[in-house]
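Quick entry between incubations.
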Amino acid sequence: MSGILFPATWSPYAAGVGIGVLVCLSFLLCNRPLGASSAYVKARGLLEKAVDPHVEEKKEYYREIAPRVDGVLMILPGIVIGAFISAVLSGQFHLSWVPGLWSATFGDNAIVRVLAAFAGGIILAFGARWAGGCTSGHGISGTSQLSVASIVSAACFFIGGIAAAFVIFHVVGV
Amino acid sequence: MPLLTRLHQNGRAQIVIGLGIGIAFGFFLQKGGVTDYNVIIGQLLLENFVVVKVMLSAVIVAMIGVNLLVHIGYAQLHVSPGSLGSNMIGGLIFGVGFALLGLCPGTVAGAAGTGALDALFGGIIGMLVGAGLFADFYPKIKARFLSCAPLPAQTLPELLRLNRWVVIGIAEIVMIGILLMLAYLGW
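Done. Structure below.
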């Protein structure tokens, strides 16, 4: 039984089935889809609220997604902890600054990579909130409900992602 | 279900359940290999199909599970009307960030948990900055884009005018067919 906890990776199908069950549990126990991107809005809102307690009155978006420590926000530390446990159990926890595919094309300068990841994170969060969800909220939870908005979003995540990856790795980084 | 409604309204229980679901989610993401930058970029460059395999397997299970839960009255659907101005434009912007970071909002947190410091100090900090920027621009984006070109229906069964379970049956066959085809082609 404990043997399943230690392999470096499972088959992607098994991991996917586990995530599918979690989506069902989220609907059953929390009455909401399983998503990640609104947790970042809550975390950011809490940071702003620490500086300015009246931020919810000033910014409409924080009245729609309240900066609160709740189940939606807790997904985020949960994912960090869960991935950490899984990586440690299978001996895959390694501190690193530059991933292999990046360094093969753009070199192993950590500052360049962190700046690219930072810019990517800004655009990713902006796009996720613009579309109203991310790969989990739209891509998995939304398509499972046969939501047209989620299917359009998920298709555009990959159309945009594939186009941008080809430009980054085959045009910019040749 | 009064018991479930009470659970949904119990803030402390929701914090614990949210954390628990997050831990299991992070565990499965890492075990599926998708907390790895190289796997995600490999997918976007169409050199591997791990992300598609994980996502389709999840949807194959969740589509049946969620709809059964709704059917027996244990859950409610959470769909909202979309628009090209929101879902298409936002989705394409997301794609650019997806490729530049090489991770998505959930997997960047998972990558940080596996020790990827670029995900922690670049990606997650960037996400917090991006979320704040969106909150600042939200009133303008909402007025100008979010309800631009609304989608004709909220769900696929409404759009196709077919029974919900017929659409689910067709979708399941298509998704399983894609997975079998990927396996057959050795991708």
